[in-house]
């Protein structure tokens, strides 16, 4: 395997590429800059509530199965890689004119987040626009340049690209969006209601999770954000499925620590990844024939 490390991300490539699948984890970064922790009014533990902690580890076996894994190093609370570069929040960044209504910005979850989970404010005041632009230059653009390159090289080599955008979701968020008496999904797959992935691709990914014994929902409460919207072009052979996994399955959300059964759950995820890779590789072979 080949490993490329920058301050923005770690890209691990397989020794031999066997399938058109790409795994990416834009919210698992945990390299908190010292100056950011000084600026923040929250303690580090609270700030980490925004992390998709350990998600890169849950999918860490992908390169050994023939698929690359792109994992963020920059933390989501510092810069959100699953937002557009222009989703800047005038409530947290100085010198910005009023922006068109955007529900993500309004809720404090723009590309430079104003809040962490539970709506808790990160900063006391505002950040200079120059600092926001520097964060974008150092972290956002390099990550998306790497992701774009992976998508294009995959599409060229296999005729299609299947991007699995890997995330985790707070347990309470699922409970809040589950009707009484209805089974609570443990995994939510998002394709913007069919806009970012072909039906066969979505069904194959869903089948892989279901075969592992996990309850799977689609598009509610998470249908896919910037990565899915920006990259998903099924008509051009680029499919994006956002995956949200219930954090309570593998971690203590308060302490941000793996549960005792983390290893067993990671092994279960290895089976899911293997099934996604196997199915995509088989489809790619059929297409080539």
Structure description:
The relative contact order is 0.16. This protein is an alpha/beta fold and 289 residues long. The protein is built from nine helices and twelve strands. The chain has a single domain, classed as 3-Layer(aba) Sandwich (Aminopeptidase), CATH 3.40.630. α7 runs antiparallel to α9.
For the sheet with most strands, the description reads: 8 strands, mixed
Strand order of the largest sheet: 1-2-4-3-7-10-8-9
- Rg value: 18 Å
- Structurally, the number of domains stands at 1
Distance between the termini: 28 Å
Output the keywords:
globular, 289 residues, two-stranded antiparallel ribbon, eight-stranded mixed sheet, alpha/beta, 12 strands, Aminopeptidase
Quick recap:
This protein has about 290 residues and is α/β, with parallel strands linked by helices. Helix content is about 35%, strand content about 20%.
List the helices and strands and how they pair.
Blueprint: E1 2-5, E2 9-13, E3 21-25, H1 34-39, H2 44-47, H3 55-58, E4 69-72, H4 103-106, E5 115-116, E6 120-121, H5 129-158, E7 161-169, H6 171-176, E8 187-190, H7 199-211, E9 216-218, H8 226-231, E10 238-246, E11 251-252, E12 257-258, H9 262-288
Parallel strand pairs: 3-4, 3-7, 7-10, 8-9
Antiparallel strand pairs: 1-2, 2-4, 5-6, 8-10, 11-12
Helix pairs in contact: 7-9
